[in-house]
Design brief:
heterodimer; A: 3 domains; 6 helices; B: Rna Polymerase Sigma Factor, Chain: A
């Protein structure tokens, strides 16, 4: 145990790759002794470190990348070239049996291909159904949570007033445990390749606006957005603002807010 | 069995459609990570292409029984992007293309299953934004630029011990935040 204790504080840094060479070598030597406790801790720390990837904004690669990948994958998926048949010394009297065997092989190959196709199609159907079910369950959970935020008297209502040429007002409701729900009607569609992005403006004047979710209204101008994890507690937030940002969102606002409301 | 695990099992049968679905599901996340590290679109696309081809060619290396898929994929993408950032020699690059360079699949804590895959990004970003600017910068330098404690201490002109504490405490806070999210 005492041997593990000296490494405990460096396990997260090891998983992150931040230990200096000497510390890393010492810890790896310890792991090489087969310490199961530290190996488990490293496993969990690796998982934790992998979660930092979500701090990077998602981005869309070009269609050309997908095209290149699929081209390579299709080519490789076609399998190894058929082997060249060796010359055989089959006696004449065996040709009948060989012909029957070839006929049977051809039938088997055709049958196997058909089964393979059927299995592949069934797999694709099952995958599609699984994806659909996951999507439906997720949509239901979101709708349930939105309804709870909208109906709970404990939710704090915030009016987001339109600025510039946007007279329509959006409503936000902030529930301390369930998140923030933003709704609106007749919301104009953002310009091409742009989205509406929500920002939480801290009371601390030196702190930067905190980027949050992105949304577009539907074809009828209806907007409904759930932010499950706003800043913890309303006390440190001065206001909520919505700006128009390039598709994919921005780490900081690039335009003046279209809607803004004080949290109070 | 999760959808990802189902698709991966189909990769073993060389199912191109399953590969396309995996790409559609995760390319934005992987590309976003690699682009954040390399800050260059064309090089980032090369790395993402490499990552997904490795996945296609070595799907058998991933063991769904050992741990979840996405963290493993993200670790592979980060390793490759950092290697690219350090401009490793051609010989090393060739070594990296071998199967044994793929990261090990690691087990995740039990609460991983309860985390909403599509919304944990919001939580991680909010937690990072809540850190003091220098602490956040220290973690970013380690994760996105592959710097060691000492290199970060020099870059930020801060004592080594302070940098170590910032990084450890920041990661522990991230862990607590994700545990809390799993409970809600």
């Amino acid at each position: 145990m005492s041997n593990c204790d000296q490494f405990r504080e460096g396990i997260e840094a090891y998983a992150l790759g931040a230990l200096d060479a000497e510390e890393r070598a010492a810890f790896e030597a310890h792991l090489a002794t087969g310490c199961a406790e530290c190996a488990r801790a490293v496993d969990e720390a690796r998982w934790l470190v992998s979660q930092l990837a979500y701090a990077a904004p998602e981005a869309t690669p070009s269609d050309m990348l997908k095209g290149r990948l699929l081209q390579t994958v299709r080519r490789e998926g076609q399998g190894a070239p058929r082997a060249v048949a060796a010359k055989s010394a089959i006696p004449l009297w065996m040709w009948g049996a060989v012909a029957a065997l070839l006929l049977f092989s051809a039938y088997s190959a055709w049958h196997a291909r058909r089964l393979d196709r059927e299995i592949r199609e069934a797999n694709q159907r099952a995958t599609a159904l699984l994806a659909e079910r996951e999507k439906t369950e997720e949509e239901l959970a979101i709708a349930r949570r939105e309804a709870m935020i909208m109906m709970d008297p404990a939710s704090h209502k915030i009016a987001l007033w339109g600025e510039h040429a946007h007279p329509e007002t959006l409503d936000a409701k902030w529930h301390k445990d369930l998140g923030v729900c933003v709704t609106g009607d007749k919301v104009p569609m953002p310009s091409a390749n742009h989205v509406l992005q929500v920002w939480f403006i801290p009371k601390d004047k030196d702190a930067k606006p905190m980027p949050s979710a992105m949304v577009k209204p539907d074809a009828n101008g209806k907007l409904m957005l759930l932010i499950m994890h706003p800043p913890e507690g309303m006390d440190d937030t001065k206001s909520i603002a919505i700006t128009e940002e390039p598709a994919g969102g921005s780490p900081w606002p690039t335009s003046t807010p279209i809607w803004k409301g004080d949290v109070l | 069995m999760s959808l990802d695990a189902t698709l991966l099992s189909r990769l073993l049968q060389r199912d191109v459609r399953a590969f396309e679905q995996l790409y559609e599901r995760h390319a934005r996340l992987v590309y976003g990570l690699v682009l954040r590290i390399l800050n260059h679109a064309a090089t980032s696309e090369e790395v993402v292409q490499d990552v997904f081809l490795q996945l296609w060619r070595n799907a058998a290396h991933y063991d769904a029984q050992r741990g979840p898929f996405v963290p493993w994929l993200l670790t592979m993408a980060r390793n490759r992007a950092l290697d690219q950032l350090r401009r490793k020699s051609e010989r090393q690059r060739r070594l990296e293309e071998q199967t044994d360079h793929l990261p090990e699949v690691f087990t995740a804590p039990d609460y991983e299953r309860a985390l909403d895959e599509k919304r944990r990004a919001e939580r991680v970003r909010a937690l990072m934004a809540s850190l003091a600017p220098q602490q956040k910068r220290a973690i970013e330098l380690a994760y996105f630029e592959g710097m060691s404690h000492s290199e970060i201490a020099v870059a930020l002109k801060e004592p080594l011990g302070t940098v170590k504490s910032w990084i450890r405490n920041g990661l522990l806070r991230l862990k607590e935040g994700l545990q809390q999210q799993a409970k809600t």
